[in-house]
Amino acid sequence: MNLLLLAHRVPYPADKGEKIRTFNNLAYLVKQGHTVTVFTPLENSHDLRYANQLSEKLNVTVAHSKLTRRTARVLKGLSSGQALSVTNFYSAELQQQLCAVLLAEKPDSILCTSSAMAKYVFHREAAAIIKRQKIRLVMDFIDLDSYKWRQYAERSVWPLSLVYKREEKLLSKLESKILDRFDASLFVTKEETELLNKYNKTPSNVCVVGNGVDRASYYPAKNSQPAPEQRLLSKDSPILLFTGVMDYFPNEDAVSWFANTVWPEVYAAHPDAKFKIVGMRPGRKVRQLAQHKGIEVTGYVENILPYYQQADFLIAPFRVARGIQNKIIQAMSCGLPVISSPEGAAGINYINNKHLVVVEQASKYLAAIDDLLTNKESYQCMSRSGIELVTSQYSWEAANNRLSKILMGDLTYT
């Protein structure tokens, strides 16, 4: 199969949600012998380096073009009545490259990652070529972005709330157009498709393709393998962990709420406890959380694995969340028990108090922590159950095989 992959961000390095998914999809398709050309806009010089590294690592062609200044892209969106998410990733030069390849190579399928990349396909010249050559179109929405912006609007004040409501409205229209025009549309969880069904008439070509975990990269420390060794537990000085890209609104909102609402009570009960916020690009609001006693904000780290292996709990106190939280299934793969809000755990097929602990109120976090700290058997059982859940249900091999079949026209994977 000759495939074009339109990615809104360079899917390398695989260090955040959608990049992890797209990189693993791409690596699998290449390994299966498919010819893949990647098209992606570049925001900075780092992206150019990453594009070249991706090309070398997977031996794929990566077509790219540098985006204009962000201010210009925002003004373009506001003046043209388009969603800012769309103009933020659009490059006329990259559009020209795509049209040239469409004519020259006559690909079998086009896979877009995120609704923002649909503009390249709906472009008049590209659309005409696609229709004439009967090229199959597949959209990987991953999450329902319009609903995400609705959540942002509900958590924000004017004027940001107004901007977010505008984005929700425009993306909702775009999503409907994609659902109508594309041959298949993918979401990461069944919950996302049910949400779609609530706001749109769901066509028959909507499929679920989940995320996975690379268990060769996320595993327990040697002294914490489930049986005969056990995961070490720091009962007197527990380490709580949160990981993620820290300029992303849901992550920033989650740690800020937890640090200001829950952490004072946890720290009062456990004066030697630590709350580590680990991830790139923490803004001022997140960096200031380090002023709380016991809280550490690391910024970017080269290797996240030791943090999963050395912590006692992953905390996922999301108030805004979509799809699967990769940090949760990565933590489970490392045997690290997770305490999450319902929003954070929503995309995961879990049994509460077996695979992870879900708490609905701020006052319940300390109780959940203390319950597991004082019950070593329950703690170890949850550690093992998390590993078992990831091993049985969150395999990249299964997810990518499903994607490959859909790209070739098999829609039995709904």
Question: Can you characterise this structure?
Answer:
The chain has 414 residues and is of the alpha/beta class. It has 2 domains: 2-212 and 396-407, Glycogen Phosphorylase B (Rossmann fold), CATH 3.40.50.2000; 222-393, Glycogen Phosphorylase B (Rossmann fold). Helices cover 48% and strands 15% of the residues. The chain is built from 18 helices and 13 strands. The strands form 2 sheets. It has a 7-stranded parallel β-sheet with strand order 3-2-1-4-5-6-7, sandwiched between helices. Strand 6, helix 10 and strand 7 form a beta-alpha-beta unit. The model is unreliable at 225-229 (pLDDT under 50).
Describe the structure in brief:
This protein has 414 residues and is of the alpha/beta class.
Strand content: 15-25%
Helix content: 40-55%
| CATH architecture identity of the largest domain | 3-Layer(aba) Sandwich
Distance between the termini: 21 Å
Largest sheet: 7 strands, parallel
| Low-pLDDT regions | 225-229
> How many structural domains are formed by the residues?
2
User: What is CATH's topology name of the largest domain?
Assistant: Rossmann fold
CATH class categorisation of the largest domain: Alpha Beta
| Rg, Å, rounded | 22 Å
Number of helices: 18
DSSP strand count: 13
Which structural category do the helix and sheet elements fall into? alpha/beta
Shape: globular
- Say which CATH homologous superfamily of the largest domain is assigned: Glycogen Phosphorylase B
